[in-house]
Each structure stands twice: as structure tokens, then as C-alpha cells.
Amino acid sequence: MQRMKIIGTGSYLPDLVVTNQMMASVVETSDEWITSRTGISQRHLSSGEPTWFMAVEAARKGMEAAGVLTEAIDVIIVTTCTPDYYLPSTACIVQAELGASKAICFDLNAACSGFVYALDMAARYLQDLSIEHVLIIASENVSKLVDYGDRSICVLFGDGAGAVVCARAGQEDDSALLATQLGSEGQNGQVLVSRALKISHPFLADGAVWPDRFGSHEDHTLTMEGQEVFKFAVRVLADSVLETVAKAGVDLAQLRYIIPHQANERISDAAARRMKAEPEQIISRIADLGNTSSASIPLCLDELIRSGRLDRGDMVAICGFGAGLTYGAALFVY
Ligand code: UT7
């Protein structure tokens, strides 16, 4: 158990809402197919705003809710697999925009599991008594990676950002990170791929560039073996949540909420059945937001807190899964 408390959350969603009907105007699909196979009705897509901008907006709201001044932030972690630049990191741009001059800043790419990895990391930083506040922001413009001619992918994803400010919990607080269970299965990386820049310089011999490791697209657009990801997701979602619960020595029924990464309503439903969770424990915003990669869990968390549905002392499990392959669950008392 680590004494950590979430003291503020924030989020940002672009104004542009793309409905399933709108999707049907660019690819051969239907509202009926998308809702019945995924649970998604609409998604927000960037109206032009970059990943860093969404991160800053979510962070500002999170810090306002936390009542923390920018100078008090010691670490900024941005989780993103859709940055605007290779260099500098999105976290450094956020630092500059916020004026959080003393923070150390870096990006973390664990794909859709990024937020869970970052929460685990924040708790470890907070064991160091010189660190008081860690700002985690998950910001994703997944639309940048999507081929809007590929109906099996383009209907799934949305853009947005969620932020969480973490601090060390006081002796009087019940708040704590009770357990985490992270994992990676790099041997199955080919099921979800987006390619980066290729090697290209004037001294390269003809044909010297190695073939693509994964059989992915020539450009950066996503390739996905949907059913393989689906099976992986159901397995790791259920098992990692159950492992955190077992590690913490609590019963699943004691959890007020389980927030799965929002990828497909059918994944969440199947995992809930596998772990024998009650439907009302499972949080879903998939209908309105689609899959926003690492932003999906903090977007749910922020909505729960702002709508007054999460109380101090409530126990919550979160679980991410995605490209890598990576997965991770965290169990905490809010
Ligand atoms: O963050 C993690 C990221 N990824 C995921 O979580 C994805 C996990 N996988 C899934 O959610 C599901 O596998 C999908 C939603 C991607 C696909 O659902 P499915 O039930 O596994 O469908 P399928 O791939 O087996 O395709 C069934 C049919 C195919 O047609 P045929 O070959 O049976 O004639 C597809 O071409 O559905 C077709 N199809 C579509 N039809 C209408 C695929 N996409 C669409 C579409 N609209 N958008």
C-alpha cells in the first residue's frame, strides 16, 4: 500500500462531435453495426487543437480542482502515443504553458495502458519525500493515426485528454494506492501497430533499410487484428483486476467502481462476467467518447468525481490494455 491521494482531476474534449451517421458518410458502415458491435454512438475528434493544447486545458482544470499552484508541481508525466513532436516531449510543452518551472517532465508511451503505468509511477515518486505533487495528463489525438478509409478502425477511436493531480496522503487520510498489477507481452506486438519515421540519410546503401517488423502500413496509420486484441483485452482486464484485489486482500464486491479502458462495450461486459462483477460497478463512457486510448480512464474518473458519484473512501479499480501489448490495473481508495 502506498499513501497517495488524488486531489484534483480535469478533462478536455474537442467541440467536434462525429456521430455514427457521419461516419457512414465516409465509409461503408451503419449506426446499427457500430452500436451493436462496439457500443459507440459518437466520438469527439480534434477540431484542429493539438495534443499538447488538450493536455494543458485538462491540466489547468485538474490543478484548479486540486487547489494547487503550478509552482508546487514536482513531476509532470504526459501519457500519449499521439504526440505532436518527437522532441520536445509533450510534458515539456505543458510545463512551459503552465509555468511549472520546478517540475521534471517526460512523456510515457504505454499506449492505452499509459495512465495506469503513470499512476503506478506517481506513487513511487511520492515515496521520495522531496516530491509532493505529481501531475499526470493523458492526452490523445488518436484521429492522427487513423485511416478514415478503413471502416474496421476509424469508427472506434476518439480524441480527448484527462488529468489527475496526485499528492502524498496524510496520516488522517484513508486514501491510498492499495495495489497495482502491470504487465507487457511484447511478443504479441504485431496485433496493434503504428509505424514511426523510417531510416533515411544520404549515406544509406540501396535496399539497406530493413523490412518492417510487423507487416504494418507503409505510413503511420494503425493496423489492428481486432479479434486478437479483443481476446487479450478480456483476459488481462479481468485477471489483472482480480490480481490487484487479491494482492490488497479485499473482496471484489467491496469495489464501488471498476473503470476499464474504454475500447468496446462488449470487452467490458465480457470481462465483467469473467471477474463476476456487478454491472453497476462497471463504468462506461464508450457510447459518447469511443476509444480515446490512454485518456479514457482519467476521462471517466473526472466525470465520476465532477458528477458527485465518487466519494472519499470509495474503492476503485482501473484497468488499461493496449498496444505493446501492455496492460495494467490499479486499485485505490479515493
Ligand atoms: O485500445 C485497444 C484498441 N483496439 C480494440 O480494443 C479493438 C478490439 N476489437 C474489437 O473491438 C472488435 O474486434 C472490432 C470492433 C474491431 C470488430 O468487431 P468484430 O465483431 O470482431 O468484427 P469482425 O472484425 O469479425 O468483422 C465482422 C464483419 C466483417 O465483414 P465480413 O468479413 O464478415 O463480411 C467486417 O468487414 O464486420 C465487417 N466490419 C464492418 N461492417 C460495418 C468491420 N468494421 C465494420 C464497420 N461497419 N465499421
Largest sheet: 5 strands, mixed
- Unreliable segments (pLDDT under 50, ≥5 consecutive)? none
Domain count: 2
- N-to-C series of helices and strands: EEHHEHEHEHEHEEEEHEHHHEE
> Which molecules are bound in this entry?
oxa(dethia)-CoA
Radius of gyration: 19 Å
- Residues in helix, %: 25-40%
Helix/sheet category: alpha/beta
Fraction in beta strands: 15-25%
What is the subunit organization of this protein? single chain
User: Overall 3D geometry?
Assistant: globular
Topology, number of strands: 13
Q: What is the CATH homology-level superfamily of the largest domain?
A: Thiolase/Chalcone synthase
CATH second-level architecture of the largest domain: 3-Layer(aba) Sandwich
CATH third-level topology of the largest domain: Peroxisomal Thiolase, Chain A, domain 1
The overall pLDDT average reads: 97
Strand ordering within the main sheet:
1-7-6-4-5
CATH class of the largest domain: Alpha Beta
Q: Count helical runs.
A: 10
Span between termini: 13 Å
Descriptive tags:
334 residues; alpha/beta; Peroxisomal Thiolase, Chain A, domain 1; five-stranded mixed sheet; four-stranded mixed sheet; 10 helices; globular; binds oxa(dethia)-CoA
List the helices and strands and how they pair.
Layout lengths: L3 E9 L4 E3 H4 L7 H8 L3 E3 L6 H16 L8 E5 L10 H9 L5 E5 L5 H12 L7 E9 L9 H4 L4 E10 L7 E9 L7 E2 L29 E2 L1 H23 L8 E4 L4 H11 L10 H4 L6 H11 L8 E8 L3 E8 L1
Parallel strand pairs: 4-5, 4-6, 11-12
Antiparallel strand pairs: 1-7, 2-3, 6-7, 8-13, 9-10, 12-13
The site of oxa(dethia)-CoA (UT7) has 19 residues, from helix 2, helix 6 and helix 7.
